[in-house]
Amino acid sequence: MIKYLGSKRLLLPRIVAAVTAGEARTALDLFSGTSRVGQAMKRAGLRVHANDHNAYAWTFARCYVAADAGRWRAPAERLIAELDALPGRPSWFTEEYCVRSRYLMPANGARVEAIRARITALELPPALESIALTSLVEAADRVDSTVGVQMAYLKQWAARARQPLRLRVPELIDGRGSASCRDAVDAAARVEVDVAYLDPPYNQHSYLGNYHLWETLVRWDRPETYGVARKRIDVQERGSAFNRRGTIAGAFAAVLERVRARRIVVSFNDEGYLSLAQIRELLAARGRVSEVRIPHPRYIGHRIGVFNPQGEKVGTPGPASNHEHLFVVECARRVATRRRSTREVGRRLPR
Questions:
Q1: SS3 string of 108-156?
Q2: Half-sphere exposure for 322 (CA within 13 Å, toward CB)
Q3: Which of 62, 116, 142, 146 is 20 to 30 A distant from 80 in Cα terms?
Q4: Is the dihedral of CA 204, 206, 207, 213 positive or negative?
Q5: pLDDT category, 316, cuts 50, 70, 90?
Q6: Range from 173-177, 180-184, 233-237 carrying the lowest mean pLDDT
């Protein structure tokens, strides 16, 4: 699993307990990210549909949530062994992200490039393609030279960046699910489930901006880039209403209105653009609300801003922890729209 801002690893036991209470059999992970929560729900025996509007997140969901380990583990092992034996072939990716910027050492970047080109050439079944891409992204993440987000890269190579890139077969899970790559409002209306888990963005930090390199690696679209960080140009064009103080309340309300579930579980940080009072009010429109407050360590990013571009300390770090709030809504009503099952899958990205 990649280093990820907002990971819910430490909260998984509480989230799974809230999701599986009662007789839940189907679940929706609407803002799936790395699909860590979707994986936990799948392991708990639920039939899961995972959605995210970023291509790298959709790839993780197709690998870990949609793909059945019993069907794909053996083919994946053969494929990953073949790909891991490829020598490097540097081209535009290596130039952009290893020479003009310093996310990966050039030797590792060239191997990433060769492996990614081979995945494209093989024209794999969607499930196997997603497994291969997940393996590649996770391998690159293990040897990158950042603090965990791609807003910038380190001035000196990280020790892990000097290690050779090696692929591993992802830890696939038995059972089937489904995945989509859609706007949250659209996705919420398309699937009816017993329980929906919502973990929306809550401040100005764009997940596309923070993980633009993985988005490019999955899309393989040779995007126009800008700035020292060599971000994809669509980071400026694909903004989310959840990342703006003036629009987040309306965006959250629109999603809640369309969620089709008898229980909604929401994770939200107490440092977000929405106040806890606002969240409670919005959730109460759907049903009876209960809430748990959980201390949680802040991401390393809270310390980065105390240094200037020359690496000199110019400030004091903020608090090392904050609080996550886990809300559970027992819905008074379901949204009356055309029923679709959790077997529906999302669109395939163009090559």
A1: HHHHHHHHHHHHHHHCCCHHHHHHHHHHHHHHHHHCCCCCCCCCCCCCC
A2: 13
A3: 146
A4: negative
A5: low
A6: 233-237
The tokens 């980065």 sit on which residue? 304
Terminal-to-terminal C-alpha distance of the chain: 25
**Ordered structural domains, the chain, with CATH:** 9-160+167-331 (3.40.50.150)
- Beta pairing, strands 47-51 & 26-29: parallel
Other Cβ atoms less than 10 A from the Cβ of 155: the count is 10
Buried b (16+ CB within 10 A) or exposed e, 185-207: bebbbbbbbbbbbbbbbbbeebb
pTM across the whole model: 0.88
pLDDT score for 334: 59
**Lookup: tokens for 196:** 């929906």
Under a CB-based contact definition with an 8 Å cutoff, are residues 24 and 195 in contact? yes
**What is the identity of the amino acid at 217?**
L
The pLDDT of residue 346 = 44
Q: How many other C-beta atoms can be found within 10 angstroms of the C-beta atom of residue 158?
A: 16
With residue 159 as reference, give the H or E element that holds it. Answer: none
Residue 175: left if φ>0, alpha if ψ -120 to 50, beta else—which one? left
Residue in the structure block whose two tokens are 């020790």: 159
CB 69 within 8 A of CB 76: no
Helix residue ranges, H only, the chain: 12-20, 36-43, 55-61, 69-84, 92-94, 106-122, 126-142, 184-190, 207-210, 212-219, 248-258, 276-284, 301-304
